[in-house]
UniProtKB/TrEMBL annotation, chain A:
It is an enzyme of class 2 (transferase). One of its GO terms (molecular function) is acetyl-CoA C-acetyltransferase activity. Its EC number is 2.3.1.9. It comes from Streptomyces shenzhenensis. Pfam families: Thiolase_C_1. It comes from the Bacteria. Residues 243-372 form the Thiolase C-terminal domain. This is Acetyl-CoA acetyltransferase. Keywords: Acyltransferase, Transferase.
From TrEMBL, chain B:
The keyword S-adenosyl-L-methionine does not apply. Residues 186-217 form the ChsH2 rubredoxin-like zinc ribbon domain. InterPro entries: ChsH2_C, ChsH2_Znr, NA-bd_OB-fold, Thioester_dehydratase-like. Residues 64-127, 223-286 form the ChsH2 C-terminal OB-fold domain. This is DNA-binding protein. Keywords: DNA-binding. GO terms for molecular function: DNA binding. It comes from Streptomyces shenzhenensis. Pfam families: OB_ChsH2_C, zf-ChsH2.
Amino acid sequence: MSKEPVAVVGIGQTKHVAARRDVSIAGLVREAARRALDDAELTWSDIDAVVIGKAPDFFEGVMMPELYLADALGAVGKPMLRVHTAGSVGGSTALVAAGLVAARVHTTVLTLAFEKQSESNAMWGLSLPIPFQQPLLAGAGGFFAPHVRAYMRRSGAPDTVGSLVAYKDRRNALKNPYAHLHEHDITLAKVQASPMLWDPIRYSETCPSSDGACALVLTDRAGAARAPRPPAWMHGGAMRSEPTLFAGKDFVSPRAGRDCAADVYRQAGIADPRRDIDAVEMYVPFSWYEPMWLENLGFAEEGEGWKLTESGVTELDGDLPVNMSGGVLSANPIGASGLIRFAEAALQVRGQAGEHQVERARRVLGHAYGGGSQFFSMWLVGSRPPES
Amino acid sequence: MPDVLKAPLVLEFPFTRSLGPVQSAFLTGLRERVVLGVRTDDGRTLVPPVEYDPVTAAELRDLVEVAPTGTVTTWAWNHRPRPGQPLGTPFAWVLVRLDGADTALLHALDAPGPDTVRTGLRVRIRWAEERTGAITDIACFEPYDGPAAEPTGHSGTFADPVTGIVTPARLDYTYTPGRAQSAHLQALAERRTVGERCPSCRKVYVPPRGACPTCGVATAEQVEVGPRGTVTTFCIVNIKARNLDIEVPYVYAHIALDGAGLALHGRIGGIPYDQVRMGLRVEPVWTEGARHPDHYRPTGEPDADYDTYKELL
């Protein structure tokens, strides 16, 4: 028996900000969930199951969100699952939820991810004082910056490429009312003049620390037929994992990322991603990850990704827009960031992205990664139902 | 087999919590010696109050005051209180349904012994002397045989509400790095760097984990690597990290020790930060009493050719 087609019929997110002191975590997730239900014109009783994801427990000290948040999410008396995959968790959470619909276990599933970075300290969570180990010497940016340098060496990219990505994403964010950073006076010169934190990564090329939540309502073919607005259809979805460190690990272009993309393209019948995919919303916490992931995801040959960025292909009006929402560089509630990527892909193919809508976005890729570049989750959504 | 190391690992962090409207009113009420519940659409009063109805998922905002007196609905005797619990002497954990409430609140009951506690026992709140807007503003419950106290009909609106609290979390572990890493650490004490070779792919893991993550097989063959190595990639750190007493800027590098199958991380010294480059040959610099090399410095050898380390970035 073939799988049930999965449709996104409701999308909700909060306005991402540095600190949402006016709401509890329950209030924050409720806001996103309520907006997703409203978008789908459904009520709590229409939801059969809830799948929730969040950042690693130490990041905000909430160990059992499935217990704490069941009543805020209308999950009492229903199945509620929690998904864990570090920074990629938002994507994995949506894929677990989609699997429940595709397998006909449930008809309509609410999936949600969140983080309140203001209530915690992610850097503390990443640098626990493990006995006998050397402390991490450089912070999160310091962990990723050597990989960026490795990419620059491997590709020969000019050192301005990172600033072009940041400038583009921050301008895209100005068109997205939910983005955290709205830097109305942004200029390329300002990005290039911002302090060098972890050379080669500048301040303006890093993501902010945000509070926010994102929710989707996923349903089956019959649910999609009743939906008040055009659905986004899932054409493919996959997850892959690899160890944090191993001999032969390629941090610049991890094998798990390549394999994950290939699986999604195979499911979706994508022969040439550069030609067949209209836009990409990818997880870029430091600007240089745009060209790196363009290669990892097969949009460019190895060493060529930066040329797409430099030539304007990834601009909002370019041939392959990347991070239309403003991306992780413009809003990063870590636990929710992957789901926001997936949601943006769905918004685009539904034609509901507002000012940052890409014209004729028929097939869009949503991408998330996490841990030490070791967890990958992606989905490809389309404006039309899958053929088989 | 070498001794397996172990050490305490304490993780603690003062998480902050924004309360939202309902918890804010509840905790501010406790500060003012007022207990607030929340009324559901079908007329039940939930104490402690919640933001969303557990049955209908409806948003709840209708705050109502209940009495500081109530009835024990169930209980368990705590023979040996732990640090941080409400009372220092043995007490009963109780669920108390306050007069006017439909649900019960968990707290401590100060009672002389388990034989004095029963379901149905009437109790009242003993307020803490100093109250800040926290559940500990209720010091505990105590037995009470007077009439039910009358609520004052408080609206739940306060002039100076508590909007956030700090919830310190602490976990105590006994940590052990296991056999393979213990052997590695014991060799470091002799200023030798010892890894383990995978019997299948032949790669040398430093530090060793006791198994090869690629092949999924146990490793046992010990191999000494280094002491010299090659900087494979790096960044220049310009911002001071908390808890790290290192002058910025400094170079944080991936260093592939000669013979190792993957790079480890370290600081580069003994050379101006802006002269560090990929391929630089380095060696460890040890300081008295430290477990790990303090940093790595140039050996003076010619730089390694990119092709020799490009798989080790």
